[in-house]
Amino acid sequence: MQAFAYSNPASVADAARAGAADGAKFIAGGQTLLSSMKLGLAAPEALVDLGAIADLKGITVSGGTVKIGAMTTHAAVAASADVQKAIPALAHLAGNIGDRQVRNRGTIGGSLANNDPAACYPAAVLGLGATVHTNTRSIAADDFFTGMFSTALNEGEVITAVSFPIPEKAGWQKFKQPASRFSIVGVFVSKGPQGVRVAVTGAGSGVFRASDLETKLAANWSAAALNGATVSAEGLNSDLHGSAEYRAALIPVLAGRAVA
């Protein structure tokens, strides 16, 4: 691994200043970045560790919203009684990310900033119509994810928290790659303040909404409403884990299971 500078700021403001420097990268749980550095796929000149910033951790429920600090681990979200009561599908999703090491080190903010096309959290954020808060602004889920490993974040911008509106109903289903436990296809569905939303991860170059399935579920919120539903394979991933057609076939099946 190459040499790099390291800083451990105690405030978001200090972190943002350090992160704005050329060649600097923020590190949260490090589950993706450190592996990339070991493989020579990333070579930041400086790492800005967010782990000491207490304001970035914690979960609150108020006014019909679950707000989760960016440095809150997947394990903490899964174990939270507040999340389990307000949005059980979100707790279920968090509890099935990766393995124990990943769940106890990985963070919601790190996952969203990285925006892996097969990650689980982007589907929950888009599927619930959440809002991503940073040190400078708030970004709606529909505007946050911009492509493969790409987001609306600017250089030096720090995710501070994510606000999830509490839905009337929500569900999550993942068909996982057994070794990595990433989604070959994952589908998050919800019905609530943001209307009916169906978000898909793992199937394409990034998380996306399945608008045709949303229309069917808006008319009839039931698994039966998706019987015979189809999704186009155009633009979907095709690799050793499954063809684009296979992924397309999985989407309505998993959506129906999530509704059920």
Q: Tell me the distance between the termini.
A: 47 Å
Q: Please summarize the sheet with the most strands.
A: 5 strands, antiparallel
Per CATH, which architecture of the largest domain? 2-Layer Sandwich
Just give the CATH class of the largest domain: Alpha Beta
Shape: globular
Please tally the β strands and state the result: 14
Q: Radius of gyration in whole Å, from Cα?
A: 18 Å
Order of neighbouring strands in the sheet with most strands? 4-5-10-6-7
> What is the average of the pLDDT values?
95
- SSE order: EHEHEEEHHHHHHEEHEEEEEEEHH
Point out poorly predicted stretches.
none
**How much strand?**
25-35%
As for the number of domains, it is 2
- Report the total helices: 11
CATH topology call of the largest domain = Uridine Diphospho-n-acetylenolpyruvylglucosamine Reductase, domain 3
Specify the structural class.
alpha+beta
Please write out the topology.
Blueprint: E1 5-7, H1 12-19, E2 24-27, H2 33-38, E3 46-49, E4 59-62, E5 65-69, H3 74-79, H4 81-86, H5 88-94, H6 100-105, H7 108-114, H8 121-127, E6 131-134, E7 138-140, H9 141-144, E8 145-147, E9 150-151, E10 159-165, E11 169-176, E12 183-192, E13 195-201, E14 208-209, H10 211-219, H11 244-259
Parallel strand pairs: 1-3, 2-3
Antiparallel strand pairs: 4-5, 5-10, 6-7, 6-10, 8-9, 11-12, 12-13, 13-14
